[in-house]
Amino acid sequence: MSSPPGRRARLSSPGTSRLSSEAREELRRRLKDLIEGNRVMIFSKSYCPHSAKVKELFSSLGVEYYILELDQVDDGINVQEVLTEISNQKTVPNIFVNKVHVGGCDRTFQAHRSGLLQKLLHEDSANDYDLIVIGGGSGGLSCAKEAAKFGKKVMVLDFVVPSPQGSSWGLGGTCVNVGCIPKKLMHQAALLGQALQDSRKYGWEYNKQVKHNWETMTEAIQNHISSLNWSYRLKLREKGVAYINAYGEFVEPSKIKATNKKGQETFYTASTFVIATGERPRYLGIQGDKEYCITSDDLFSLPHCPGRTLVVGASYVGLECAGFLAGLGLDVTVMVRSVLLRGFDQEMAEKVGSYLEKEGIKFQRKFTPVLIQQMERGSPGVLRVVAKSTEGPETIEGVYNTVLLAVGRESCTRKIGLEKIGVKINEKSGKIPVNDMEQTNVPHVYAVGDILEGKPELTPVAIQAGKLLARRLFGGSLEKCDYINIPTTVFTPLEYGCCGLSEEKAIEVYKKENLEVYHNLFWPLEWTVTGRDNNTCYAKIICNKFDNERVVGFHLLGPNAGEITQGFAVAMKCGLTKQLLNDTIGIHPTCSEVFTTLEITKSSGLDITQKGC
Amino acid sequence: MAAMAAALRGPVARFRSRTRAWTRGTRGAANAVGAGQQQQQQQQSFDLLVIGGGSGGLACAKEAAQLGKKVAVADYVEPSPRGTRWGLGGTCVNVGCIPKKLMHQAALLGGMIKDAHHYGWEVTLPIQHSWKKMAEAVQNHVKSLNWGHRVQLQDRKVKYFNIKASFVNEHMVQGVDKGGKVTLLSADHIVIATGGRPRYPTQIKGAMEYGVTSDDIFWLKESPGKTLVVGASYVALECAGFLTGIGLDTTVMMRSIPLRGFDQQMSSLVTEHMESHGTRFLKGCVPSLIQKLPTGQLQVTWEDHASGKEDTGTFDTVLWAIGRVPETRNLNLEKAGVNVNPENQKIVVDAQEATSVPHIFAIGDVAEGRPELTPTAIKAGKLLAQRLFGKSSALMDYSNVPTTVFTPLEYGCVGLSEEEAVALHGQEHVEVYHAYYKPLEFTVTDRDASQCYIKMVCLREPPQLVLGLHFLGPNAGEVTQGFALGIKCGASYAQVMQTVGIHPTCSEEVVKLHISKRSGLEPTVTGC
């Protein structure tokens, strides 16, 4: 053991020392000068393997250090003795960073893991910035702003490469510009369409002719987004974070090149980097796709109504878009290669799908497009789509005004110079593997958000991870981002909220016989008057029988599922059990109260359909 | 057996009307009653008799029947002074939660129609609202629920009597039906679940004659027109809210504070929001006289306490919402020896829901000190039946009951109000996190979100146990439920903060609360 933490070395008293007190003072001054004069000072022995490890660490961090090899200087024994007095540590390596005694090998690595080392290193950096964040989306911005709170010098680089259709946008990333925000607002527009229909049943009377104007809606939504872009810039400025609208690319371990719209290049250095470049929609790589198809990058700012639309893909993006387009009165078809909402509970996914079908959306399952042709130009034009069965030679053709691809997203990690500094990515997915501290294989480079391998692609997750990362890096915090039991909601016309495991995953983890699934169909009170179906909304919880019926999965298909699920996620964080659900009083009359009265287990096979009048 | 004997000594002989013999339920009653009578009086006996077919009573009865017991429910709706009557199911179904939430929904839809054009929907003016159409739809739904309750009782073999019940002695109840026919029912256990009815200010001249209450409003065939709502209970504010929402000229007259018993900061935000959305408020005013004008309208005279002056106004409808009285006066409780609190006439109960008579119980709004809420009555009724008939010994937990006031901007809450928390733990030991937020959907329509506000009341000592949550905003009812569970699970502020939000929702603002009142910092949420 080179540095047993906490072990107190016996202090030599002057009387027993081989040094005169004068010589001792002189040596002490010399060592102090070394410690104070070097950003990183390592007292080491050339043969010590632990010392070698520490040197490697600092090399990998790209940090310069000064070494005194005790076995290679004449008064090495005396140095060790005085060092013991200074640091209370007798062994080597003995490391000081920015005048602070870090400890030995173990302590140094521990400090590195906890972020303390980085913090110490940044106290007096020769770099331009303490932190450079590449990507101004939810995760990047939250990390940058939090770091700035600790008085750090922070820069954010954000640059939107226009989509193949030419769509581009401002600061804030996917969520604000081409994700959560515009989709929820278009979802709301569709819900209002439903509300208009419902309202007549509730006594409202007005002209039957109600049309939807795409341009009015889009303009209103884009105005809101612009105001958000603006407020993000303002907030960065308020917090003293430097913002550059330029494309960031690593050129050296601690140096990046920023290229702006005009092609001007600038270089910046930082001691720590956070990659938060997010993802962009994937294309199919078939003839005509980049020329004629749009993606979610384009839809929300489309200057004209998309008309008859084919949505390719049944990811949540695909289904949400299909849902609101149909809700606005458009003719919508969804082409699905295999399953709906991959990764989500499949029983729920099918229920989401059948509701969409009820809303008039057509599904073409087990087909994938092979060719897109333009038949007419225009706004929108006319496109011919040829698709091939995934199971046989069968092909089908269709004519649409718009083809929206929602076939997945690609990480923006391949063109930012990661290979130059040795940051590993998953070659297949482009995702970046990180440890539980969001650290990449290169210690001073971190990553948050959608580009993380095996982590949920959700705004609030990125925000949380970014914030906690900054706190660990600069605030001495040890709290890690907890990626377990993260709630989410698919904003299809009938919303699907969930938290925890899908039934499939739960069976995989706990085995079917150890689980009890409680479920019920329910009829929202507001639907009664409008005569909407009484066996559509569905609630399901999955409990671990051998852990006090702890709830390991929560699933809800119904109005306002997003609003409902949040509180249950808090409860799951606190160890929610079936008994606690039973003991909790419902709020009447709401949809959410259904969870306080779930009595029927799936295994019982009992009927859960609700009777009509 | 002693109890049985007591039952037989009852003064049943007075009643002469006939009832059909109940095959299993005679228990020798014929002997006792028949002697010396011209017409034989049949008595039916049960394991459990529930008086009152509302949420609590029905839940209790059905649960007991499911446990194999012989159960009867006696329900009777005394028409309101205005003559409104309804079917089985009690307040919630007929003149409470259900119709009010539906009319609240009608009002919300009105707001959505206004919002719709911002979202591209081209709705041609004028937009009108037909009370008649709405009321009919709501009433039809209520009637279907009445039917459903009847069917459920039948399915579970619970005997239903549409009779007005009162105690004969501690084991026997007599019931009179619409035609004056009398039935005698005896039972080992009796549950009183008669609920409450709106209070009339009988001291005010014209109040009974011209005013209506929540017993009537949902059953009006024609629009109430320009309405004065007197009172500031949640019933008053909810009614005033939806009336305003469907386009009626609505005024609330309140004597003192709104939503007594609720967090007062939240309560004033509720009324502030209503005021900004067109409900008029006459604060510190008390009505003194209602007169009918030759036009058919009502002239209301009131006193303004602040100025001491008298004022008058003309309305089409005056709605009293000044509280509710428990339905205990006609039960002849003294014959059974059941004690009520003389101040409020509510039945005094213990943790087992037992009254002063061990085999007589009371649940729901009629029981003293219980929250007047449907789901608490249901749960209490169920648990009571389970305890009575041996399925469980679990007591009803009346703490941390969540509820929501369905005013136009909904107010959901669970746990302690800020005032209660401070009173209980002291200002120094309470930390309140709060935020003003803007729902995403409001941005496009530029709706005013000044009253969208959340506060979480916590203990100050780490890990800062959550004592109460208060949420004012759209869908508060839906939002609050899950958090109620969180609080039940003993959630701490730290745990709430560790929960990842669902974006973009209003409920995620709860897990983002980070400004404490103590810090004095601006609690307005801006952006993501």
From TrEMBL, chain A:
Signal sequence bounds:
none
Q: Which InterPro entries match?
A: FAD/NAD-bd_sf, FAD/NAD-binding_dom, FAD/NAD-linked_Rdtase_dimer_sf, Glutaredoxin, Glutaredoxin_euk/vir, GSHR/TRXR-like, Pyr_nuc-diS_OxRdtase, Pyr_nucl-diS_OxRdtase_dimer
According to the record, the residues making up region (Disordered) are 1-24
Annotated ranges, domain Pyridine nucleotide-disulphide oxidoreductase dimerisation = 486-597
Cystine connections: C175-C180
Record-linked Pfam families = Glutaredoxin (PF00462), Pyr_redox_2 (PF07992), Pyr_redox_dim (PF02852)
Record-annotated residues binding NAD(+)? Answer: G313, A314, S315, Y316, V317, G318, L319, E320, G408
Q: How is the cofactor bound?
A: Binds 1 FAD per subunit.
Q: Where does FAD bind?
A: K184, G248, D450
The UniProt subunit note reads as follows: Homodimer.
According to its UniProt entry, what is the function of this protein? Answer: Displays thioredoxin reductase, glutaredoxin and glutathione reductase activities. Catalyzes disulfide bond isomerization. Promotes disulfide bond formation between GPX4 and various sperm proteins and may play a role in sperm maturation by promoting formation of sperm structural components.
Query: What is the name listed in the Swiss-Prot or TrEMBL entry for this protein?
Result: Thioredoxin reductase 3
From TrEMBL, chain B:
Q: Per the UniProt record, which EC number(s) apply here? A: 1.8.1.9
Pfam families, per the entry: Pyr_redox_2, Pyr_redox_dim
Q: Is Nucleotide-binding among the key words of this record?
A: yes
Residues that bind FAD: K101, D365
The FAD/NAD(P)-binding domain covers which part of the protein? 46-381
Q: What is catalysed by this protein?
A: [thioredoxin]-dithiol + NADP(+) = [thioredoxin]-disulfide + NADPH + H(+)
The organism's superkingdom is given as Eukaryota
Q: Which GO terms describe its biological process?
A: cell redox homeostasis; cellular response to oxidative stress; glutathione metabolic process
Span of domain Pyridine nucleotide-disulphide oxidoreductase dimerisation: 401-512
- Return the protein name: thioredoxin-disulfide reductase (NADPH)
Keyword Magnesium belongs to the record: no
The record's GO molecular-function terms, alphabetically, read: flavin adenine dinucleotide binding; glutathione-disulfide reductase (NADPH) activity; thioredoxin-disulfide reductase (NADPH) activity
Q: How does it assemble?
A: Homodimer.
Which species is listed as the source? Cricetulus griseus (Chinese hamster)
